């Protein structure tokens, strides 16, 4: 049998087992453990020889298979004979495989639906004439866990070492301000992500971010978001021409 | 108010909303009988469906929302300059497990999939497709997860009852029925509910 | 491409766009003759007009845009007014910082979020979710904020002690404790209490 199988194509050991069972034209509830175990181990072995990392889960399954195989080969001990109808050693694995198969199929069903944002689209913006002041009409249901999630987001991006890093790398914030203003003079809005090159260095990101904050503080740009997790957009507040003429001095920004 | 007028009103409201609108809420807003509103919305949805144009009135997440017809996806993508996104198999599998088995813990998902699923659960949380429902009253008090309204919206489901039935393997006669789900804990263990807002 | 298909495509594109779309641009996107696109759009506009429903295909600013019919303006306004307050990401983040780190200044919130938070703090004050506790005894004597009783009610908490600790969330991949929050000032700086109202 052709064992040209890449582990990374499988979601995990259960997925790989299902594949082997199908390939051998077996029924899940009647696995020929010896044959499947041999093939499973051969694949792991091949991976090992190619110096590929085999995730721990695949190894755990290998030992499970070997255990089942040994149980099937050993004659039942006397003590076990007393208990009538001992469960088939394969039963637990079979149940897991059947259960996994079920959700694997359900996942495919989900993927075949018409997905919003992929296959179908809705209007995700408020009509301009409706963007009026909201009245005090109560709250959307927000749980305390939403609050914790928000905090986690901040923690994930908190500027914990900003001040030191900028100092070390001598990235000019005035230069970045200049750059942003230059970009803004050519268009009326700018996506935050457009401020960066393809793969910006960490210090560039920080300097650009600080430059953006400075511009906000100077009331030369405003930041807008079109929905709560949408991308951030920069809009100039005054005409871009006047901005170009009044560049801040590096020293006046207070970053050294 | 005659039915044509009601339909126009409902159409205008559903059109401007950025979220699906429920018949209940619309009935309240137009001060009309809920059943009347519901049937007017159904009629509208059928009209759009029969017309077979660029937009459809879809029933999702318990409400109504205008959406583009799936067969014009290419044109819309060209306009938005967007590439089609793909859910990874890991994401879809975990989402399927959470959707069908909620409330579930990360441990449940990992047991069923047979692999570590922490990263994928984090991603699903970030995308607001699942949310933390609370904590399970067992040792370690693990978090329990369920799907969100956004999940229904993204997958175009009216409600969780709209999920297709899982293919069961009833023909199999194992010593123990498949109905004995092999989860580390059973689903009806006591659950620490999140205090609702 | 037949005209029905073209019309559907145009309809879908105009529907999802947040700005009016010009016939030129649409013609380019569907790779069709401009005159053909123009006449298809005209036909669509007429269909909607004849139908006399809740929405119209309007010709504005040299382009096409779907709009609600003027006579349903009241219903649309009612819908908009009834919108419950939606916690924006900004509001949730600021509220989270204030809840966990109170008493905090606006500067603390802005330092952590990395963006101006004046507007959002004002909104939270207006909604009675936070209140001014006093002034901080540092240069500039900035105001310090804390959460209110209403905050506890909205989030279903008995007291601030009921706020989940971030440690409890360690399973979703969180390696920073709340104590490590990188605030520019420490929370136990001396605080001038405002006489409580």
From TrEMBL, chain A:
<protein>
    <recommendedName>
        <fullName>Segregation and condensation protein A</fullName>
    </recommendedName>
</protein>
<dbReference type="GO" id="GO:0051301">
    <property type="term" value="P:cell division"/>
</dbReference>
<keyword id="KW-0131">Cell cycle</keyword>
<keyword id="KW-0159">Chromosome partition</keyword>
<keyword id="KW-0132">Cell division</keyword>
<dbReference type="InterPro" id="IPR023093">
    <property type="entry name" value="ScpA-like_C"/>
</dbReference>
<dbReference type="GO" id="GO:0007059">
    <property type="term" value="P:chromosome segregation"/>
</dbReference>
<keyword id="KW-0963">Cytoplasm</keyword>
<dbReference type="InterPro" id="IPR003768">
    <property type="entry name" value="ScpA"/>
</dbReference>
<dbReference type="Pfam" id="PF02616">
    <property type="entry name" value="SMC_ScpA"/>
</dbReference>
<dbReference type="GO" id="GO:0005737">
    <property type="term" value="C:cytoplasm"/>
</dbReference>
<dbReference type="GO" id="GO:0006260">
    <property type="term" value="P:DNA replication"/>
</dbReference>
<comment type="subunit">
    <text>Component of a cohesin-like complex composed of ScpA, ScpB and the Smc homodimer, in which ScpA and ScpB bind to the head domain of Smc. The presence of the three proteins is required for the association of the complex with DNA.</text>
</comment>
<comment type="similarity">
    <text>Belongs to the ScpA family.</text>
</comment>
<comment type="function">
    <text>Participates in chromosomal partition during cell division. May act via the formation of a condensin-like complex containing Smc and ScpB that pull DNA away from mid-cell into both cell halves.</text>
</comment>
UniProtKB/TrEMBL annotation, chains B, C:
<dbReference type="GO" id="GO:0051301">
    <property type="term" value="P:cell division"/>
</dbReference>
<protein>
    <submittedName>
        <fullName>SMC-Scp complex subunit ScpB</fullName>
    </submittedName>
</protein>
<dbReference type="GO" id="GO:0051304">
    <property type="term" value="P:chromosome separation"/>
</dbReference>
<keyword id="KW-0132">Cell division</keyword>
<keyword id="KW-0963">Cytoplasm</keyword>
<dbReference type="InterPro" id="IPR036388">
    <property type="entry name" value="WH-like_DNA-bd_sf"/>
</dbReference>
<keyword id="KW-0131">Cell cycle</keyword>
<dbReference type="InterPro" id="IPR036390">
    <property type="entry name" value="WH_DNA-bd_sf"/>
</dbReference>
<dbReference type="Pfam" id="PF04079">
    <property type="entry name" value="SMC_ScpB"/>
</dbReference>
<keyword id="KW-0159">Chromosome partition</keyword>
<dbReference type="InterPro" id="IPR005234">
    <property type="entry name" value="ScpB_csome_segregation"/>
</dbReference>
């Amino acid at each position: 049998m052709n064992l040209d199988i890449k582990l990374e194509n499988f979601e995990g050991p259960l997925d790989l087992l299902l594949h082997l069972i199908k390939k051998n034209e077996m029924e899940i509830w009647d696995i020929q453990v010896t044959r499947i175990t041999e093939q499973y181990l051969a694949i792991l072995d091949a991976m090992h020889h190619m110096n590929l990392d085999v995730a721990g889960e695949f190894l755990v399954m290998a030992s499970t298979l070997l255990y089942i195989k040994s149980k099937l080969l050993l004659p039942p001990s006397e003590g076990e004979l007393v208990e009538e109808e001992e469960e088939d050693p394969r039963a637990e694995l079979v149940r897991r495989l059947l259960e996994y198969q079920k959700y694997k199929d359900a996942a495919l069903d989900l993927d075949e639906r018409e997905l919003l944002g992929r296959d179908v689209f809705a209007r995700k913006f408020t009509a301009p004439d409706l963007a009026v002041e909201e009245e005090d009409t109560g709250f959307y249901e927000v749980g305390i866990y939403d609050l914790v999630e928000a905090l986690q987001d901040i923690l994930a991006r908190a500027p914990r070492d900003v001040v030191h890093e900028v100092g070390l790398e001598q990235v000019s914030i005035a230069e970045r301000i200049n750059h942003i203003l230059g970009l803004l003079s050519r268009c009326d809005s700018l996506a935050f992500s457009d401020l960066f090159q393809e793969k910006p260095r960490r210090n560039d990101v920080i300097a650009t971010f600080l430059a953006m904050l400075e511009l906000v503080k100077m009331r030369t740009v405003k930041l807008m978001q079109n929905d709560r997790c949408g991308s951030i957009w920069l809009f100039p507040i005054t005409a871009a021409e006047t901005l170009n003429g009044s560049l801040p001095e590096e020293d006046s920004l207070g970053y050294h | 108010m005659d039915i044509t007028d009601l339909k126009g009103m409902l159409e205008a409201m559903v059109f401007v909303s950025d979220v699906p609108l429920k018949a209940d809420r619309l009935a309240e807003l137009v001060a009309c009988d809920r059943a009347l509103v519901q049937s007017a919305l159904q009629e509208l949805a059928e009209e759009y469906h029969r017309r077979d144009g660029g937009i459809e009135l879809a029933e999702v997440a318990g409400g109504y929302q205008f959406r583009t017809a799936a067969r014009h996806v290419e044109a819309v993508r060209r306009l938005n300059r967007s590439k089609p996104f793909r859910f990874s198999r890991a994401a879809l599998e975990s989402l399927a497990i959470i959707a069908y088995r909620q409330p579930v813990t990360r441990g449940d998902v990992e047991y069923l999939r047979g692999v570590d699923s922490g990263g994928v659960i984090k991603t699903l949380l970030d995308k607001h497709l699942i949310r933390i429902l609370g904590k399970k009253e067992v040792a370690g008090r693990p978090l329990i997860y369920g799907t969100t309204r956004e999940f229904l919206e993204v997958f175009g489901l009216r409600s969780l009852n709209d999920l297709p039935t899982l293919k069961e393997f009833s023909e199999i006669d194992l010593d123990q029925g498949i109905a004995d789900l092999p989860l580390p804990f059973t689903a009806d263990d006591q659950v620490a509910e999140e205090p609702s807002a």
